[in-house]
Design goal:
- The chain is 31% helix and 22% strand.
- The protein is of the alpha+beta class.
- Strands 1, 2, 3, 4 and 5 form a five-stranded antiparallel sheet that branches.
Length: 202
């Protein structure tokens, strides 16, 4: 309906490949595919398809019995993903060869329906300043939806559980101070119109 064809998606992936690969190279990827277009049914895919080209890197980052994830290493990787109508690419927060040790700590701000984006951005920037006062170097970035991420690079020395517990302990005083606008409650019925600060485990 928008007149956008797959060739244009491929060209876009080619154009952003240098920037994308700086962030995602060496990371296991999860895909959201739209084989019938953006208004059709989509599906989430983590495991490598059987028909993946032999040159496409892949790994079982969480053990030999876990899923076999795709890992983008070059421009051609993104071109092939575009041919699959993959319009969302999610990355694990760990990079080869340290799959068991994340290199980022992520605070995901998930606002309720109808929440002004400007207000979400204000909370994200305030959270960033709070974390900087704890000694972290932070970035705020869009997520492709209505939310924002506050991303904290860390050295790949600690496990996912250790980083998760550290992030949760860091976020708790901030949420307690801003309990009228933010929450750590995952259940929607307990958020009461507040922004969820969701902490990623991987």
């Amino acid at each position: 309906a928008d007149g956008i064809v797959k060739a244009e998606i491929i060209q876009y992936y080619v154009s952003v490949a240098p920037a994308f690969l700086r962030h995602a190279k060496g990371r296991p990827l999860s895909l959201v595919r739209f084989p019938d277009g953006v208004d059709g049914e989509s599906f989430f895919q983590k495991s490598r398809p059987e028909y993946t080209p032999a040159w496409f890197e892949h790994a079982r980052p969480f053990g030999p019995d876990d899923l076999d994830y795709l890992i983008a290493t070059e421009q051609a990787s993104l071109v092939w993903l575009a041919t699959l109508a993959c319009l969302e690419i999610h990355q694990v927060h760990a990079r080869s060869p340290f799959f068991d040790k994340p290199d980022t700590m992520v605070f995901d701000l998930d606002p309720p329906e109808g929440h002004p984006f400007r207000r979400t951005a204000e909370i994200a920037l305030e959270l960033r300043r709070y974390l900087e006062n704890l000694g972290y170097h932070c970035f705020v970035k869009t997520t492709g939806g209505k939310g924002l991420h506050v991303v904290v690079p860390v050295r790949p020395r600690w496990t996912f559980d250790q980083v998760f517990e550290t992030a949760k302990a860091a976020a708790l005083p901030f949420v307690q101070k801003h309990n009228d606008t933010t929450t750590l409650q995952i259940k929607k019925e307990e958020r009461k119109g507040r922004i969820l600060i969701d902490i990623y485990r991987n």
